[in-house]
Amino acid sequence: MLIASQMEPTYARRVYPCFDEPAMKATFNIRIIHDPSYVALSNMPAIDVSEVKDENGSLWTVTTFNTSLKMSTYLTAFVICDFDYVTRTERGNEIRIWARKEAIKNGYLNYALNITGPIFSFLEDTLNVSYPLPKTDLVALPDFGAGGMENWGLMIFQEASLMNLPSDEFTSRKAMIALIVSHELGHQACEWFGNLVTMNWWNDLWLNEGLASYFEYLGATFVEPKLSLDKIFYAHVVQPVLREDSEIARSLSESEDKIKGSFPLMSLFDNITYSKGASITWMLSGFLTEKLFIRALTSYLKEFSFSNANQDDLWTYIQMVIDAQDEVQLPAPVKQIMDSWTCQNGFPVLTLNLTAGTVSQEQFFNKENRKSTDSYNNTWIIPISWMRNGSSQPLTWLDKSSKMFPEMQVSESEYDWILLNVNLSGYYRVNYDQLNLKRLARLLENDPKAIPAVSRFQLIDDVFALTDFGYVPIETALELTKYLAREDELFIWNVVLLNLIPDSLESTLKNHEVYPLLKKYLLKRMLPIYHYYAGFIRQNADALEDDYFAQAYLEKLMATACWLGLQDCLDLSSELFAKWRDNPEYKIPFLIRRTVCCYGVAVGSDKEWNFVWERYNHTDSVEEDEDVLLYAMSCAKESWLLHRYLQYGLSDTLFSSNCTSVIILHVVTKDIGHRIAWEFVTENWPLLSQGYGHELLHDVLKVMGRFVKTDVQIQELQVFYNATLEEDEREAITMLLESAKLENIERRKLLIKVANWLEKNVDD
Where is this site: Transition state stabilizer (predicted)? Predict the structure, then answer.
């Protein structure tokens, strides 16, 4: 048994009577009465442990904690557990990490313990503050709703976020632990974020979380210097939120009145708050310079510690630092610049005309489904970092809707090129004119390294996003992929593949005439990077343990090579699979296990399938293994195996452990599996609906939507769900399928364009 609390944002009121608002700070005296075989933890150290008898004469332990510092209700916390801990003292602060006894005994928390102290000290030194509590506990729970929670002095995490097997040298796992720990420590040690200085009200939550996310990356790189911070930051933070932000009608900082109403506070804990907050903080630190940014933060923390602040207070402090020096000149007051980013929805796209040297801005929105009533007249004050022909130029600003930059006019020479928003330092996209794009494409083919890696990543991501939103034709984006045979960065390949072959389209693309062309065009370009990594996999996969991106993205590259039918990839999968079949103790390299198991089954026969089924049934292994095995069995290429798999899925053990739905969802995404899975669901619905309810049907129908192209196909699905769903659910699903159908029709048109372009370029 185990008890732990999570008060943020508004649950403290369910534990004790209080004015549960972040600005109402108080000191807390906590006392917990609990079973003597358990230990009680809270924000402060225990100062007294005594015994008490209840009316039945049973003994209980009473743990009394020291009075807390002045703090917000949402940061109070307690845990009652029978865990063990590992400990170490850093600068007089006793750090303990608590977890299940066997996890402590096996050393699974040693890595987290090794980095917690150094990250603490790094943050204290950077921000010139000292941590005000005598101890810090980190608790790893087997199950927890969030990744981590920054309760002052008692941080709570999911087990997975803190544990690392001592034998696991892979950077990616350590990187994740380092990131989560630095995020929560950022809240602790110092930042305005959260504990010392709290937001006045939840509408400024982004200050808390955006800054914690920014320092999370600085802290993690400090303890794991092998991580290439900027690449990871763009690939994991900026790029995904740019994709999301254009669809979401919410600004970073909403007005206090709006959030005071019946606004669902939990909805603020989203990617806009965390990732957009971090991206904008990164941009701010970039144009101020890190030195001035940290200087301003330090004075701000001193002024507001133990009290509350809002974003304008921070802008005031930054303004004071800017006014006191003359190296950095800003085109407007800090508040005006930052309000344009935090108080408006979305973000800008810059459109260039380099023959004339003009740059204009507008809100980035989807031109395909823009309603004429929408007004998009926002303007931002935009810092532009840029380079010309490989050399960096002084930072410049676009502070109105359009502006002439004579220094950006390009000459007749095709060797004269310009690159904006170098290394994605600003939170926006760039739409180049055809002339400059041609020059950049040519440059990539001749000397890709002339453009920094993060900028190559961004060029490709921007041009595909511009295609999706109707700013430029798909052919423009494809021109930038010609150079890829010379691209050796996995994180760039990853963004190309996510755009060309999204996971959700694999099964539909396979049946389209674009497939053989794509195969020929892409394989030719993938071979160099594929062989580079396949060599490691064959000889010494452990050599990749410091290659963060191999751990994050090699799987997608391999899976694509196999999906495109690259013989060497299929052979490699069979080889490794056979090794594993001959000796179940053999470990398929963790980086590509999912792909190897899948294609081992796909190119094999029922023998391979049965082997995986058998491994699944007597596996004492961790959850990720089970998931890999369940997925692999859905890769079978023979219909009867998939039929049988679904039948097996109805057995009691699988049914009770929620795996039946996992199996169905794996099978329904496969090109030969979607009809089989649909028939199976309709035939077994009475049983399935008891176990899984309508959620399963929703998920299955969502996937079926990828395959509908005609009304007749929708009607066929409708016959079934009209009989099983309530009226409002039926309407929602019908709308979902209608829009899926339109998307599929649009996509067919797009794929015809892609196919035509590939026809012309496939032999280049």
Answer: 274
- Residue 422's nearest CA partner among 443, 380, 452 is 452
Question: Cα separation of 742 and 736, whole Å?
Answer: 10
Q: Residue 169's pLDDT band (boundaries 50, 70, 90)?
A: low
Highest mean pLDDT: which of 112-121, 186-195, 706-715? Answer: 112-121
- Is 34 annotated in a binding site? The answer is no
pLDDT in tens, 608-617: 999 999 998 8
C-alpha to C-alpha distances, 42 to 67, 75, 154, 453, 654, nearest whole angstrom: 11, 11, 6, 46, 39
- Tokens representing residue 538 in the block: 């064959």
Calculate mean pLDDT across residues 489-500: 93
- Is 679 part of any known ligand binding site? no
Beta bridge partners of 431: 351
Bond preceding residue 9 cis, omega within 30 of 0 = yes
What CA–CA distance (Å, rounded) separates 282 from 381? Answer: 15
Residue 338 and residue 228 in contact, taking contact as beta carbons nearer than 8 Å: no
Task: Report d(CA 625, CA 443) in Å as an integer.
Answer: 44
| pLDDT tens profile 361-400 | 999 988 776 655 455 568 999 999 999 999 999 999 999 9
Tokens of 577: 């699979």
Class assignment of domain 348-480? mainly beta
Q: Is 531 annotated as a binding residue?
A: no
Q: Where in the chain is the domain with CATH 1.10.390.10?
A: 192-345
**Among 61, 2, 53, which Cα is nearest to 36's?**
61
CA distance 80 to 290: 42
64 neighbors 46 (Cβ within 8 angstroms): yes
Helices (H), 154-202: 159-162, 171-189
Q: What is the pTM of this model?
A: 0.85
pLDDT in tens, 572-631: 999 999 999 999 888 888 889 999 999 999 999 999 999 999 998 876 655 557 889 999
Higher pLDDT, 312 or 173: 312
Which DSSP string do the residues of 67-116 spell out, in sequence order?
PPPSB-GGG--EEEE--EEEEEEETTEEEEEEE-HHHHHTTTTHHHHHHH
Q: Decide if 184 is catalytic.
A: yes
- pLDDT for residue 678 is more than 60: yes
pLDDT at position 266: 58
The bridge status of strand 93-99 relative to strand 135-141 is parallel
pLDDT at 163: 87
Q: State the DSSP H helix or E strand holding residue 563, giving kind and residue range, or none if neither.
A: helix 548-563
Class of 192-345 in CATH: mainly alpha
Please identify which of the residues 21, 124, 150, 184 carries the catalytic annotation.
184
Q: Tell me which DSSP letter residue 424 carries.
A: G
Domain with CATH 2.60.40.1910 in the chain: 348-480
- The Cα 529–Cα 18 span in angstroms is 59
Q: CA angle 452-393-471, nearest 5°? A: 65
Q: Using one digit for the tens of pLDDT, what is the confidence trace for 712-726?
A: 888 888 888 888 888
